[in-house]
User: What shape does this take?
Amino acid sequence: MANENRQARVAERVRVEATTLLARTLRDPGVNAITITRVSMTADLQVARIYYSVSADGNRREATLALRRAKTYLRRKLGQKLGLRLVPEIRLLYDDSLEQQQRIDTIFKEIEQERIKHPVIQTVEKGDDLSEEQYDT
Assistant: This one.
């Protein structure tokens, strides 16, 4: 359990420091549209998986290339800031959870619109009532 807490603390520090480095020190215009969404660490703290997303006005390909160019710089600066004995290897992964959430939201809105257009009328027979009284023990 203590190891899991340490993983979470280190992951959060990596996220904060990487976000700060991207926003304040990198001059590459490709990183301007990048948001670091989360970071996960392996149990031995040797690999940091950094998940990122790109804003709607950003180019995903350009942002990915910019992050790859900055990967070595980020790792070196994270090593200086974190003070860990071993600097974790950085793996950059695109986080498409926001896109998935938007797709699901669109599907739900379409379903709701369909229900408004074509309402379903349910009839309940007198003997089909499943109220709580039947389940009292």
About this structure: The longest helix spans residues 2-24. DSSP finds three helices and three strands in the chain. The chain has a mean pLDDT of 84.
